[in-house]
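Field log, afternoon session.

UNIT: design team B
ACTIVITY: writing a sequence onto a fixed backbone
BACKBONE:
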């Protein structure tokens, strides 16, 4: 599991956060971000990783795992008030419909929190304890904090899992079965 953590985390974000799209969120400050995902009511431990980003890889990350849903959503309502962004959406993927409510607070320059509740209807059965599993309801929180510049052995796009396993989003396909994006 740990060796696949960055891909798993990104995939979980795609399923749990269809409400969030690249054109709706501010860019994160370039540098090293510490990110922790906590799933409420699930038999999953918190998932933590660090992400070294610059403007291009931040945009690619959001596009790869957020904009996949742009055409799939029949509802996408976003409201912004101060440092809070609220997004409600209904998106369809194959035989499954995901209804989500996301609240993003904080600053994309220093620290932000994303709280997402979603309900999955239809689609293949998922084992209990997995996001969208029994009952199809998921509550998760993402806490992100800017740590400073990326370290000398990191390049933009690197996602670093606990234990030091590193994967670069530029090496990840944009969709299942697709070729990796060019560098």
């Amino acid at each position: 599991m740990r060796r696949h953590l960055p891909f798993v985390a990104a995939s979980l974000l795609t399923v749990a956060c269809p409400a969030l799209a690249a054109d709706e969120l501010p860019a994160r400050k370039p540098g090293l971000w510490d990110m922790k995902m906590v799933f409420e009511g699930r038999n999953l431990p918190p998932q933590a990783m660090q992400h070294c980003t610059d403007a291009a890889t931040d945009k690619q990350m959001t596009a790869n795992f957020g904009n996949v849903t742009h055409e799939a959503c029949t509802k996408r309502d976003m409201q912004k008030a101060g440092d809070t962004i609220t997004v409600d959406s209904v998106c369809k993927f194959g035989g499954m419909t995901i209804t989500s409510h996301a609240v993003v607070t904080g600053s994309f320059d220093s620290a932000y929190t994303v709280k997402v509740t979603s309900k999955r209807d239809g689609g293949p059965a998922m084992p209990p304890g997995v996001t969208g599993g029994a009952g199809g309801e998921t509550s998760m929180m993402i806490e992100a904090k800017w740590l400073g510049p990326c370290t000398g052995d990191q390049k933009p796009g690197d996602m670093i899992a606990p234990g030091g396993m590193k994967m670069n989003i530029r090496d990840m396909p944009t969709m299942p079965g697709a070729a990796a994006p060019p560098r």
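LOG NOTE: The beta strands are 31-40, 47-53, 73-81, 84-93, 96-107, 111-122, 137-148, 158-160, 166-168.
NEXT ACTIVITY: expression trials, pending approval
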